[in-house]
Amino acid sequence: MTAPSTALTAPKAADGEPALKYVQANGLRFGYLEQGSGPLVMFMHGFPDNAWSYRKQMQVFADAGYRAVSPFLRGYAPTEIPADGIFDPIALGKDLEALIAALSDDGQACVVGMDWGGTSTFQALAAAPSAIKAAVVMNTAHPIAILSNRKDPEFIRSIFHVFFFQMPGADSLVNIEGLPFVDYLWKLWSPTFKNDEHLRSIKETLSSPGTMTAALKYYGGLSDAVRTGRLPMNEMHTPTLTIYGSTDPTARYSVAIEPLFKGPYKNIVLPDVGHFPHLERDAEVTGLIMDWFKTHAPN
Predict the structure, then answer these.
(1) Best exposed site among 211, 225, 233, 282 by fewest CB in 10 Å?
(2) Residue 261: beta bridge partners?
């Protein structure tokens, strides 16, 4: 395993900001942010992003009597890079399951995940449902949607990065000084969101030795899982809220996954919102998450 040595700098914040801690889970040393005390709520980030993405949500949940935890995903500094190079949905789901087991008092948590964090959440909901009391998943393409739309040219165009990141040499084109591809994706996916400090934090994470290379391997891990049928296709009975931004490509394909949810389920599409709903409409989305958990996983 490779442990990134960089000391990550937090974006400027008021007093009482999350603390950076470490825990061993699923064979890796995870770095995570923690704030508050009480029932555990896990916040799982995506790409290109890091655990600081949820700083506003963590503050609100901490103030409401929850223990808010936001891990850096496998390979994202300061979390270790797995020596086996595995970044498929099964590994992501096991990470989440192991993190809940290591950090919770009762083996359960409420979970919020988006993008790759959403993939880990879908996997855990299918494979380890007893670990999750209630879930909120944002802008995540479920494997059912991928499989049912993989011959749609518009779908292929909208997820061009998935294929580009698997091309030979992609790492050398993306992982260059200043990380301009990160700027490009944020402008493409969430053009109305502006936060230079958070973007600098993301670039610091992705600039840590080995982190960008690890982050790009997630895409090959997903493609291999699709080809070999190693995907979370089970029905899900855990109360789950899905939130999509109307301009995100995943929104138009979200209807395909509705039959998989057999427990309480609701899908919300937010108009004029892109890939990062919790940042673009932080107060509204935080309220939706809080209401869902209070209704379906009361303290």
Answers:
(1) 233
(2) 236
